[in-house]
User: What shape does this take?
Amino acid sequence: MWKYILKRLGIAVVTILIILLILFVLLEFMPGTPFDMTEGNITDEQIEVLYAKYGLDKPVLYRFVLYVKNMLSGDFGVSYVIQNNMPISQMLEGRLTLSIKIGAQAMLIGTLFGLILGIFAALKHNTPLDSGATLLSMIGASVPSYVFALGLAYVFAFKLKWVPLLYNSKKEFISTILPTIALSFSPIASIARYSRTEMIEVMDSDYIQLAESKGLSRFVVIVRHGLRNAMITILTIMGPMLVSLMTGSTVVESIFSVPGVGNLFINALQVNDYNVTITLAFIFSAEYILMMLFVDVMYGIIDPRIRVSGGKKA
Amino acid sequence: MSNGRFDFHEMSDNIEIDHNFSGQNEIKEKIYRFQKNKGAVVGFILIVLIILLAIFGPIISPYTHDAINTAYQNLPPRIPGLEKLGIFDGTWKGINVYEKAGLYDKYFYLGTDSLGRDIFTRVFSGARISLLIAVIAAGVDMIIGVTYGLICGYYGGKVDIIMQRLIEIIHSIPRLVIVTMLMIVLKPGVGSIIVALLISGWIGMSCLVRAQTLKLKEQEYVLACRTLGVRDRNIIFGEILPNTFGQIIIMTMTSIPSAIFMESFLSYIGLGIPAPQASLGSMISDGYKTMLTYPYQLLVPAVLFAVLMIALNLVADGIRDALDPKMKDM
Assistant: This one.
């Protein structure tokens, strides 16, 4: 098991380095110099001075090593446009935790309601209730989270005025309700879908019949014997779910003007703040790689067959 | 009942055919399975409708998607015929905006936006671009992914290992990052969106085809071909490829909605289709700005987008169930 985890960790580190290289190359190819946005006209000499100041006059390889070293030690450079010369690591403070908090809330609600909906549909298999649940999860899976976010914002924030439309740091929890709900639709839908399929299959199996004939209560049978097996499938769809959550969170955060990383990312993209953009791209990639690693390791723990074959999935 | 076979068509009036074993031709059987799926049929009809409107809507409309006319700003929807019923009659908050502005003979079916552009023309020319991008991206994805997967799976060994490493790296970068980073470097436009979607889009297809090829190449008929001295190229494209068609079609169908989603996402954040060209994503983004005063400007593109996505997913599901019943419900 440890060997497997170490191997996966090694691959993750190499991938992160490659991503850094790609980002570095992209920085090189970005149109213009980073100082185009600075107010007033600057002369070529001034640009040279600035280049020297930020070490941009050194050879490429040297700069790459420096870049990697800085990034890995948490120094992501400074923002050029959004907040002049503010270190990015300082900008990220608070934003990252807020985004992770909303993401985790959405994931939690998504898993909970998704499972309830999925199990419910599986137990009422082939009834109108099942079709209704399937239709709901179809809609949840197809419609992007930002469309839901816009609808929620209009109905609950603007018409009913239950919650503030825009993020209010004084009422943090209430402000995160709508973004969380908007983001949770897609996890609800995919978990409901997969757990329904899985539960239908599991509830048909012999050991469920055995559990039932032993006289265990319906609840215990469903939760302890049925659900545990469905969890494996749910783990496998964690990766794609995380991706959709990440993409969704950027727009959803900007709709509700939540001061999170997603919002900052869109902001940086729109005003060409390359340093911020690239830092966030790196953080998203690293987050994604670590989550995938976590999922794979968890998968190995839950399903021993994968561990033995060295993590090879079809 | 000639040549010993039971003729079902003769008897079809009075017996119910068991479609599982009726020995129909394969395509007919698949179409039959697709038709039995109500959701898929509804989705299919909706897609055909949207495609027809996307092709002909902007042509028959008297307005263009980019003509700015300040006299027509923020007009509510007004449709001839329906206005007599009291809906779509051009009234907004109790006032007939058209009469107030003196536009008695103008009809904007879905209203106009804050620059006076006809929303009907814009949503459907936007849908046209979205569909075009998605279909091209999915098509090229398919070609690249299939070729890559076939080569990986068929040759195996070192070729496979090296090619799989490349896939692993691209696969471990989130699509959001790849696509947005590329859009910054490339000039915004239809072409660069397609390129950006391609870079990350073909991976899934190639993994699928590779797995299928690994399975198929062990089968006897491939061995027979090899023994007979058939060229590798002919085995790959002539023998193995046709047997993976079902899976390829399913994968392509599911990649179309995700391409549309990505395109709308890019346009929403302003990295996609440049103005004044319409796109569903950029229209939703514009509509959001005026949501509080003129909600229909958001509602129209958002609803069309949602319907399009649901319909595409329904059809993709239907095709998957029809082509590969084993994958049903997954």
In short: The longest strand of chain B covers residues 91-92. Strands of chain B lie at 91-92, 95-96. The mean pLDDT of chain B is 80.
